[in-house]
Structure formats: C-alpha cells, structure tokens
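If your schedule permits, I should be very grateful for your opinion on a structural question. What I wish to show you is a protein chain and, alongside it, a tokenised description of its three-dimensional fold. Would you kindly read the sequence against the tokens and tell me how you understand this chain to fold? Here, with my thanks, is the record as I have it:

===
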Amino acid sequence: MKINEILTESTDVCPDCGKNPCECEHVDEGENWSKHNNKRVGGMSKKSVASYRRSHPGSKIQTAVTTKPSKLKKGSKAAKRRKSFCARMKGMKKSRTSAKTARDPNSNINKSLRRWNCESIEEMQELVMIAEQKIRNLKK
C-alpha cells in the first residue's frame, strides 16, 4: 500500500471544512501565531504572543519591555528583564553577527534592541566620538 492510499483511507475529517485532514488547508487563527506578527518590529506583538500561548499551553512567553528605562522603577521585574535581555542580545550582536549585520539598522537584532530601548545615551555618545575620530583621521 502506498502512503497516499493510507492517507486517503483515513476516516478523520476536519471539523471546520469537512475535508480529509491531508487535503485541508484550513488553519485556525490561534494556531498560526506568526501571521499576527507580520510587521516584523523586532519581537512579538501582543496579538502574536496571545496566539502563541493559545497554541502552546503552559508557555511563559512575554512581550518586550518597551517602557523607557527612565520610567521603569529600578529593581522592578520589568527593569530586570529588560537589563538581562539587553545584556544577552548585545553579547550576541558582538559575537554572532557579521559587521555588516551589526551596522544594518533593519537587521532583526538591531530592531529588537531598539524596541527594548537598549541603546543608551552613553553608547550613542561613544559612537559619535568614534565617528568623529575616524573623520579626523580621514582628513589627515
């Protein structure tokens, strides 16, 4: 017996459309959590997290901490989560990405770091100083 014959002999029927499950293209909204995340903003949206949790019971996935660091209470759960995420992702950015990806503002890692407000003022000042030094060196 061929696999196609075995699959077509199945008595199971999709409850939504009445077709054989192998032929059924019906996808429940809760099952396809990635479709809610079509903007690709550097993390999962609230809708996609809710959808993911419905299709993966017991999951503890959460959305990004998008609150400004100055507005977060020091030592709060959200502040600790944000700090941990930023440290982890900055390490990954240094060790696991190419120089081109690290500089690309549209790379997923940079989008997520922006969304979590991981770019601090000190880092931006350091980048400006480095850029000014490079400009001075080029002019010489």
Summary: Residues 77-139 form one domain. The chain is about 50% helix and 0% strand.
